[in-house]
Amino acid sequence: MNLPNKLTVARMILVILLIAFLLIPPTWLGNEPIILFSNVYLRYFIAAIVFIVAAITDYFDGYLARKFNLITNFGKFMDPIADKMLVNSMLIILTVPHQAFVGQISVPVIFVVLMIARDTVVDGFRLVAANQNKVLAANIFGKAKTVLQMIAIVMFLFNDWPFSHQMQSDSFPIVSMIVIGAATFVSLLSGFIYIFQNISVLKETHDDTTAH
């Protein structure tokens, strides 16, 4: 297994550990410390650091694979799965804030539903294209969507810090909401562009040969 593939596997392992860590019942941890100007719970701070490390591996596995011609079928199959596991699992978890963590903001469910629905449709197009021996390249908006999603996840884990520190403690987390809203908009935009550019893969092909 080459280095890019090892990074992909490492990212999947980090995702599993991160999910397990965040799903530990708050009552098991007792009085959890709050850091960063009494705004961020220690659990979310640790989760943000692990998430950032996993996101960095997402960049480097692709970069190394392209630079040193280490692209493999394993990498082409597992890399997008690891990416979806990393981003979508975190978005889903962050829609339900822990009850014991008073004041921890959550991601609006509608945004997560729209983004996952978009990914499902795009993956369906790629599956149909693969059956026709075609490879559908991602557009620039798709890459921007992923970057915005990752930034939004870190901001929600940090409970809108440092922007929340500049506002009243009970103020609406406007910056985090703007970023997740932008991620949702760009996600849908990239999805529509992707469908428009590749709608031809859904057209039926007819075999002109006649069976005897």
Layout: helices, strands, pairs:
Blueprint: H1 3-22, E1 34-35, E2 40-41, H2 42-67, H3 73-93, H4 109-131, H5 140-157, H6 174-198
Antiparallel strand pairs: 1-2
Structural summary, described in words:
The protein is built from six helices and two strands. The protein is mainly alpha-helical. It has one domain: Up-down Bundle (Four Helix Bundle (Hemerythrin (Met), subunit A)). A hairpin with a 4-residue loop joins strand 1 and strand 2.
Short description:
This protein has helices at 3-22, 42-67, 73-93, 109-131, 140-157, 174-198; strands at residues 34-35, 40-41. The chain is mostly helical and 212 residues long.
> What string, H for helix and E for strand, traces the elements in order?
HEEHHHHH
Number of domains: 1
Oligomeric state of the chains?
single chain
At the fourth level of CATH, the homologous superfamily is CDP-alcohol phosphotransferase transmembrane (TM) domain
Mind describing the biggest β-sheet? 2 strands, antiparallel
User: What structural class is derived from the secondary structure elements?
Assistant: mainly alpha
Q: What is the overall pLDDT average?
A: 83
Q: Helicity, in percent?
A: 55-70%
What is the CATH-assigned architecture? Answer: Up-down Bundle
State the distance separating the first and last CA atoms: 49 Å
Number of extended strands: 2
Structural Rg: 20 Å
CATH topology: Four Helix Bundle (Hemerythrin (Met), subunit A)
Instruction: Please report the number of helical segments.
Output: 6
User: Judging from the principal axes of the Cα atoms, what is the shape?
Assistant: globular
DSSP strand content: under 5%
Strand order of the largest sheet: 1-2
CATH class: Mainly Alpha
Poorly predicted ranges: 207-212
